[in-house]
Design brief:
Blueprint: E1 9-10, E2 21-23, H1 30-34, H2 41-58, H3 60-71, H4 82-91, H5 94-112, E3 121-124, E4 127-135, E5 138-142, H6 151-164, E6 168-173, H7 183-192, E7 196-199, H8 202-211, E8 221-223, H9 228-239, E9 243-244, E10 252-257, H10 263-274, E11 281-286, H11 289-304, H12 309-316, E12 320-323, H13 327-337, E13 341-345, H14 349-353, E14 361-364, H15 370-375, E15 401-409, H16 411-427, H17 431-442
Parallel strand pairs: 2-12, 5-6, 5-8, 6-7, 8-9, 10-11, 10-13, 11-12, 13-14
Antiparallel strand pairs: 1-2, 3-4, 4-15
Helix pairs in contact: 2-3, 2-8, 2-9, 3-8, 4-7, 5-6, 6-7, 8-9, 10-11, 10-12, 16-17
Length: 443
C-alpha cells in the first residue's frame, strides 16, 4: 500500500516566527523538518583558515586586530588581573553566589559518582590487566559572551575538570564593549579553580588555544559551546592536533507533548532555548492539533513580554511545530533529529524513555524544565548539537581524562598465552612479534 503524503501546513496564527504547523509529515519529508540553520561551509572555512593562519604567525598582534574587528574593542592586556577578580567578587550579589554554590554542589555530586575505581582482572592465569585514569594536563574552555555571558558553562566545564585533576585550566571569553569580562564569569572561574582567564573570543580564541601565543598558552583539549564560527574553529583545531570535546554549536530543543502536558510550560521551554541566539532551533511535536493551537497561543503571549524578544523571534524562524498522532512515528522522528535537549511532557514517559537512543540530555515530565539542566540539577549542559548526539556524549568526567591500560604477565602467564601469540603473529607474517614471545618461552 502506497504511503499517503499528509505533509501539509495547518493554519495556526503565525507571529513573525513559526509559520504554522506540519500535520503528520511522512518520513520522506522529515529531512526538510530536521535541517538545522547553517552558514555556507565554504564561507566559514575560508574565514577560519585565515584567522588561524594569522594567529599562528602573529600571535597576540592578530588577537588584538581580530578583537577590534569582531568585538569592536581595543584590548591591551588579555589576561584578567587579580584586581579584576577581586572587584568582581565584590560586585556579584551574595544571593547569586549562594545560587552558584547550590549549582556547584549538585554538579559535583553528579560528576563525582562518575569516578571509576581501579579493577584488576586476571584474563588468564598469570595475565593481569587493568585500566587507570589520568587527567588531561592542559585544558582550554571557550565561554560564550556575546548577548548572554554564560557563567553557568564555567561551572559545567570547570567542576569536572577540577574533579579529574587537570593541572592547567585556561578560560577564554569575549570582552564586552568596555573591554571587560562579566563579573559572574570571573566569580565562577574562581569557584572552579581556573588558572587563567583571557579576554578573547570567537575564532581567534580557539586559534590561540590551538597554537599558543605570547600571552595565551597552548592546550591539549578545547571545551565549550559556541556559534557556528566557534564550532567550525574547534573542528579546525582538531585537524591541527588539538582534541575537542564535541561539535557543540547553536542550541536546540525538541519538546514532545500530549494531552497530559501544560501548554504554558511547553511554550516557556521552547522560548528558553529560542532566546539563546538567532541561530537556535526549537521543535515541538504534539499528538493533537488542538494542543498545538494552545501551545502556539501561549508562545505568542509569552514572547510578547520577553526582554530578548527580537532574538527569540528570529530563532523561531528556524523552528517547527509538528503534529504526529502516534508514538512510534514520534520516537522515530526524535531519534532521527537527535536533539541536543529533549523534553518528554507525556503521560506514558517510560515507553518513550526506553526507546530514546539519540539525545544529548533528556528532561522527563511537566516539572522538569530544560533550564534546570542548564544551571543546577547537576547534569552537564555542554551537549552535542546538529545531530551529533547519534555518536557523541555530552561532557562528563571521562571527557577530562585519558584511560591508560596496563598489563603484567608472569612466567606462568607467558607460557599460558605465548603459543596463541606466536601462531597469530606468524599468520600475520610479523616474525619479530613472534620472536618477542618465543625468546621468553625458551628462557
Amino acid at each position: 500500500m502506497k504511503e499517503k503524503n499528509n505533509f501539509e501546513m495547518n493554519e495556526f496564527s503565525p507571529f513573525g516566527g513559526i509559520k504554522g504547523g506540519y500535520i503528520n509529515p511522512i518520513k520522506s519529508e522529515w529531512l526538510a523538518l530536521t535541517t538545522r540553520p547553517t552558514i555556507k561551509t565554504e564561507d566559514l572555512s575560508k574565514l577560519v583558515n585565515q584567522v588561524f593562519k594569522e594567529v599562528k604567525e602573529l600571535g597576540d598582534v592578530a588577537l588584538k586586530n581580530y578583537t577590534q574587528q569582531f568585538d569592536s574593542v581595543d584590548i591591551d592586556e588579555f589576561k584578567v588581573t587579580e584586581e579584576e577578580f577581586q572587584l568582581a567578587e565584590k560586585l556579584v550579589s551574595n544571593e547569586l553566589k549562594q545560587a552558584m554554590q547550590l549549582a556547584v554542589n549538585n554538579i559535583e555530586k553528579f560528576h563525582s559518582i562518575q569516578k571509576q575505581e581501579k579493577q584488576v582482572v586476571e584474563t588468564t592465569s598469570g595475565v593481569f590487566c587493568w585500566q587507570e585514569s589520568r587527567p588531561i594536563e592542559k585544558v582550554g574552555f571557550y565561554i560564550p559572551g556575546g548577548t548572554a555571558p554564560l557563567f553557568s558553562t564555567v561551572l559545567m566545564l570547570g567542576i569536572p575538570a577540577k574533579i579529574a585533576g587537570c593541572k592547567e585550566i585556561v578560560l577564554c571569553t569575549p570582552p564586552n564593549k568596555a573591554g571587560k569580562i562579566a563579573n559572574e564569569i570571573l566569580v565562577a572561574a574562581k569557584l572552579v579553580g581556573a588558572t587563567a582567564v583571557y579576554k578573547v573570543g570567537g575564532i581567534q580564541a580557539i586559534a590561540a588555544l590551538t597554537f599558543g601565543t605570547e600571552t595565551i598558552p597552548q592546550v591539549y583539549k578545547i571545551f565549550g559551546p559556541g556559534n557556528q564560527f566557534v564550532t567550525a574553529a574547534k573542528q579546525e583545531a582538531f585537524q591541527r592536533g588539538v582534541a575537542i570535546d564535541m561539535p557543540a554549536g547553536p542550541s536546540e530543543l525538541l519538546v514532545v507533548a500530549d494531552e497530559s502536558s501544560n501548554a504554558a510550560f511547553v511554550a516557556s521551554d521552547l522560548l528558553s532555548q529560542a532566546e539563546h541566539g538567532i541561530d537556535s532551533q526549537v521543535i515541538c511535536i504534539a499528538n493533537k492539533e488542538e494542543l498545538l493551537d494552545k501551545i502556539v497561543n501561549e508562545l505568542e503571549q509569552q514572547l510578547a513580554v520577553l526582554p530578548r524578544k527580537a532574538i527569540a523571534q528570529q530563532a523561531l524562524e528556524n523552528s517547527k511545530m509538528i503534529v504526529i498522532n502516534n508514538i512510534s512515528d514520534t520516537l522515530d522522528f526524535v531519534n532521527d533529529y537527535a536533539p541536543e535537549h529533549l523534553i518528554l511532557a507525556v503521560k506514558n514517559e517510560d515507553e518513550y524513555v526506553s526507546k530514546i537512543s539519540n539525545a544529548g540530555s533528556v528532561f522527563i515530565g511537566n516539572y522538569t524544565p530544560e533550564s534546570a539542566g542548564d544551571y543546577a540539577s547537576g547534569t552537564n549542559h555542554t551537549l552535542p548539537t546538529n545531530g551529533f548526539s547519534k555518536a557523541f556524549s555530552g561532557v562528563n568526567l571521562d571527557a577530562f581524562v585519558k584511560k591508560i591500560t596496563f598489563q603484567k604477565i608472569t612466567k606462568e602467564g607467558i607460557q599460558n598465552i605465548g603459543n596463541a601469540i606466536e601462531l597469530m603473529a606468524e599468520a600475520e607474517q610479523l616474525q619479530a612479534h613472534k620472536n618477542a614471545v618465543s625468546i621468553r618461552i625458551r628462557d
